[in-house]
Amino acid sequence: MALKTCPHCGHNVSDQAIKCPSCGKDPRYTDFQLEQREQQHKKKRRAAGIIITIVVVIIATVCAIFLPNRIRYQKGIACRAVKDYETAVDVFNSLGSYRDSAQMARLSMRDYIYAHPTSNDPISVKYAEQLIEDGYGSGLERILPRYFEHRQSTTTSLLSDAPRGTITHSS
Length: 171
Hints:
Low-confidence stretches: 157-171
Number of helices: 6
Strand order of the largest sheet: 1-2
Distance between the termini: 100 Å
Strand content: under 5%
Radius of gyration: 38 Å
Order of helices and strands: EEHHHHHH
């Protein structure tokens, strides 16, 4: 073990020492070298801070986008569970293309109609028309026979009133 002079204070220290007993600085490096090392450490800490900030912002953005939809979707599921089909339809329709919300909205419409089988209330009629328009009206004529009888007679009267040779479409 040899002795060398500390470049910071001039005292004799061991050549294996990492801290001068007199000034407390590392005798292996000069003041300039210590300053450079400190600047490199600051840059690394700053870069790590920026990366952590970017990751946090990305996670927050993803949560802000997807979490409200997930919460609303769960609300729609809960509404279906307590047979509040009208609210479930509204919730699922507001979700747009999130997961299978369009299918869940159609199922909620169908369940609303099945829960009110003898009535032709405006909501049942609206839901029936929407299901028919979307191609999911099969079997509804058994549930809402009065609506379908009225719909058939309206279509027939429109066709009988039309002049021969013309084609009409009812909506």
